[in-house]
Amino acid sequence: MLAIGAATLAICIAAMIWLDFFTEHGEYHRVPDVKRCRLSEAVARIEAAGFRCEVADSTYNDKFPLGSVIEQDPKAGAEAKSQRTVYLSLNASSPRLVALPNLNDMSVRQGESTLMGLGFRNVTITRVPSPYKDLILSISADGRTITSGTKLPLSARINLTVGDGDEAQPDGDSIEVVETDVFDLDF
């Protein structure tokens, strides 16, 4: 029994020593800062520090150079074991384009809300004389008139031309009355 106990203890101690060696227990490396670096430079710096690299995501951010690293996980300066994977988020090489919905004849409040929901943040309003108050009459982006379905980057400057409701209304004598048929529908 004593020999079995000693053998078990020796196996456990050998396993712990092997496990410490295999997992590099207590050995950490600092993760390099690769934000704003191009992908090739980021990969070289990460691999030189003893880590692996993987691109996890790509989004567009106009505050970063195209094709550069926006985020990394683990963060720069963190301690991690060698051969750990550093996940990178890259800045897309072109902005995401969004198809403009049909906003004509929509209220300005609903139109603004729709645009904000799609991610457009640079929306201005120009009021023009019209009998229809707060109704979107036309849409322009970056100085050119556009129609629904046109694909625009989220950074586009969109201008909504909206009626102000102040256009002079015709007097009652000049209004033409048009008779229409009325249908009675039973449901």
Notable traits:
187 residues; alpha+beta; four-stranded mixed β-sheet; 3 helices; 11 strands; 22% helix
**Cross-sheet strand order for the largest sheet:** 7-11-8-9
Count the DSSP helices. 3
What fraction, in percent, of the residue positions are helical? 10-25%
Radius of gyration based on Cα positions = 32 Å
Low-confidence region ranges: 170-187
Indicate the structural class.
alpha+beta
How large a portion of the residues is in β-strands, by DSSP E?
25-35%
Order of helices and strands: HEHEEEEEHEEEEE
Number of strand segments: 11
Largest sheet: 4 strands, mixed
For the termini, the CA-CA separation is 93 Å
Overall geometry comes to: elongated
Mean pLDDT: 82
How would you describe this structure to a colleague?
With 187 residues, this protein is an alpha+beta fold. It is built from three helices and eleven strands, in the order H-E-H-E-E-E-E-E-H-E-E-E-E-E. It has helices at residues 2-22, 39-48, 108-118, and strands at residues 29-30, 52-59, 69-73, 79-80, 85-91, 97-99, 123-128, 136-141, 144-145, 151-153, 158-163. The strands form four sheets. A four-stranded mixed β-sheet has the order 7-11-8-9, with helices on one face. The chain has a three-stranded mixed β-sheet with strand order 2-5-3, covered by helices on one side. A two-stranded antiparallel sheet has the order 1-4. A hairpin with a 2-residue loop joins strand 8 (136-141) and strand 9. The longest helix has 21 residues, at 2-22. The protein is elongated, with a radius of gyration of 32 Å. Mean pLDDT is 82; it is low at 170-187.
